[in-house]
């Protein structure tokens, strides 16, 4: 299922009588955490998300991990002030190294680029054992994350574009398919190059992974705006390449021009607005 929306309700909660608020992006991520999860928030910052989820009774246990000492200290204070030391374990460490094998079943990673996110997942090793749900929000290189998910037998079941403070964020949730053959079959159906047929016979695999299959099949004006912005970025690169004397610049510019052509063709096939669903 896909939700593609401009607005998302914020969530309020209190710690020692002080009202705190989750951003719309964190609120959306919280909605996607399964009830009763054993949860890990990687790159937790002040542990707002695990504290909210624990207070609301949605999770039974959490690990809040961060690679920086400052956020870890702040997270420990937040958890202690909320009286949740027995539920949330705050840990200093790089990526998923803070987790033991089988310790959690749901992991959230947000607020970083897709390349770093995939590195964290790739290096997780046994820490990923037992994890069946990934709730992710990469702010660039979303295609790298989708490729990692496909390669590792996770299947997207939700994607969302959410606009907050003038920035369009990508959110995605993926669930583990334990049967490798079924995972491949489901992902083949998901990343179907003919999804816009007959308007467009085939979309390149590269663009499918960039745009997101569930977002593509449920596009709205936020999706169109995001990709008009992407076109503008690519056209700036093409302009820079056109002024370059490097021998490979002309070929590179041609590749970028083909990307822009295909993106425009895709957008022309899509409705500008579609009802969103949860």
TrEMBL record:
Coiled coil: none annotated. It comes from the Bacteria. Keywords: Methyltransferase, Transferase. GO terms for molecular function: tRNA (adenine(22)-N1)-methyltransferase activity. It holds the Pfam family TrmK. Gene3D superfamilies: 1.10.287.1890, Vaccinia Virus protein VP39. The keyword RNA-binding does not apply. InterPro entries: SAM-dependent_MTases_sf, TrmK. One of its GO terms (biological process) is methylation. This is tRNA (Adenine22-N1)-methyltransferase. It comes from Cohnella lupini.
């Amino acid at each position: 299922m896909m939700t593609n929306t401009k607005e998302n309700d914020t969530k309020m909660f209190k710690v020692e009588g002080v009202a705190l608020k989750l951003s719309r992006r964190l609120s959306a991520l919280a909605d996607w955490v399964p009830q009763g999860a054993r949860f890990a928030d990687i790159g937790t910052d002040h542990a707002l998300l695990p504290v909210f989820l624990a207070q609301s009774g949605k999770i039974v246990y959490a690990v809040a991990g961060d690679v920086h000492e400052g956020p870890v200290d702040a997270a420990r204070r937040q958890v202690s002030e909320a009286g949740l030391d027995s539920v949330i374990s705050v840990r200093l460490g790089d990526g998923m190294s803070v987790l033991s094998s089988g310790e959690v079943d749901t992991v959230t990673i947000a607020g970083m680029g897709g390349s770093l996110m995939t590195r964290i997942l790739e290096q997780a090793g046994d820490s990923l054992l037992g994890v069946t749900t990934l709730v992710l929000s990469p702010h660039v290189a979303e295609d790298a994350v989708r490729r990692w998910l496909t390669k590792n037998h996770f299947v997207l079941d939700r994607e969302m574009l959410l606009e907050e403070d003038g920035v369009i964020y990508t959110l995605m949730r993926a669930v583990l398919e334990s049967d490798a053959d079924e995972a491949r079959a489901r992902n083949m159906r998901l990343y179907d190059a003919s999804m816009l047929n007959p308007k467009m016979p085939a979309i390149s695999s590269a663009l499918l992974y960039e745009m997101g299959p569930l977002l593509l099949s449920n596009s709205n004006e936020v999706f169109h705006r995001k990709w008009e912005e992407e076109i503008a970025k690519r056209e700036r690169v093409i302009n820079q390449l056109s002024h370059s004397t490097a021998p490979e610049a002309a070929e590179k510019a041609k590749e970028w021009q083909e990307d822009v052509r295909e993106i425009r063709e895709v957008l022309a096939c899509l409705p500008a607005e579609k009802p969103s669903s949860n």
